[in-house]
Every structure is written in structure tokens, then in C-alpha cells.
């Protein structure tokens, strides 16, 4: 029961993440990844389980995308300034925030995948 409640909370946070992407320069791709995480959380919370592949697919995409951002740009140097202000200070700070958001998605999707029953129906 507690895990279902946590999924409702995480689902609400991922839905909020979808909403705040509205002003992003490339909102659709961000809305899709956060929306996918939201859908997995809501399905888990409502049904009690989801096919293990669902959170794993979202996790792999989010993790690969996060690593690509970290390795493909100056985001690694921006982590120290990521929470200095709410607005985007520099592109590298934005990339650090985006990478961290993707890591949060990946981490929670791993938790959801590991919580699924072994074998049988999931």
C-alpha cells in the first residue's frame, strides 16, 4: 500500500514536470519522457503492478539520454550552479538540470521495475 502511495506522489511530480516544460525551447520531447514516467507510476499505483518492461524501457531511455547530455556538453561543470536560481542562467545549467531530471526518472523506473512480481503475470 505504501508503494502505491509513493507512486501516486511520484506520478504527481512527473505530471508537474510535464507541465513546467511548456516554456522549454524543446517541450515535446521532455513532455514525452516525463509523461511516460507519469503513466508508469499511475498504472502501478492504480493496478498494483505493471509489466516489468514498461518501467525498464523508460529507464533505459532516460538513463541513456542523461549520459548523452552529461558527456556531450558542458553540463558536468554546471552542477554546482544548478540551483542558484529558478530561471535558466546558462545553457550548461539547463543541461545539468535536464540530466538530473532524467536520472530521477531512471532511478524511479528502476525501483518500479524491481518491485514487480517475479515470473507469472505482472
Describe this structure in words.
This protein has 122 residues and is mostly helical. It has one domain (2-115). It has five helices and no strands. Helix 1 (2-20) runs antiparallel to helix 2 (27-47), helix 2 packs antiparallel against helix 3 and helix 3 (53-72) runs antiparallel to helix 5 (91-115). The longest helix is centred in the C-terminal third of the chain and has 25 residues, at 91-115. The protein is globular, with a radius of gyration of 15 Å. The relative contact order is 0.15. The mean pLDDT is 84.
Between the first and last Cα atoms, what is the distance in angstroms? 17 Å
The biggest beta sheet reads: none
Number of helices: 5
Number of domains: 1
Helix content: over 70%
Broad structural category? mainly alpha
Provide the low-confidence segments as ranges.
none
The average pLDDT score comes to: 84
Q: What is the element string, with H for helices and E for strands?
A: HHHHH
Amino acid at each position: 500500500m505504501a508503494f502505491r502511495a509513493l507512486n501516486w506522489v511520484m506520478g504527481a511530480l512527473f505530471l508537474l514536470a510535464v507541465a513546467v516544460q511548456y516554456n522549454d525551447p524543446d517541450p515535446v520531447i521532455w513532455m514525452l519522457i516525463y509523461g511516460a514516467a507519469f503513466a508508469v507510476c499511475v498504472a502501478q499505483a492504480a493496478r498494483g503492478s505493471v509489466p516489468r518492461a514498461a518501467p525498464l524501457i523508460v529507464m533505459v531511455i532516460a538513463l541513456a539520454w542523461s549520459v548523452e547530455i552529461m558527456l556531450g556538453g558542458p553540463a558536468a561543470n554546471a552542477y554546482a550552479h544548478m540551483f542558484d536560481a529558478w530561471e535558466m542562467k546558462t545553457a550548461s545549467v539547463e543541461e545539468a538540470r535536464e540530466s538530473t531530471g532524467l536520472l530521477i526518472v531512471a532511478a524511479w523506473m528502476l525501483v518500479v521495475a524491481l518491485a514487480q512480481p517475479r515470473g507469472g503475470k505482472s
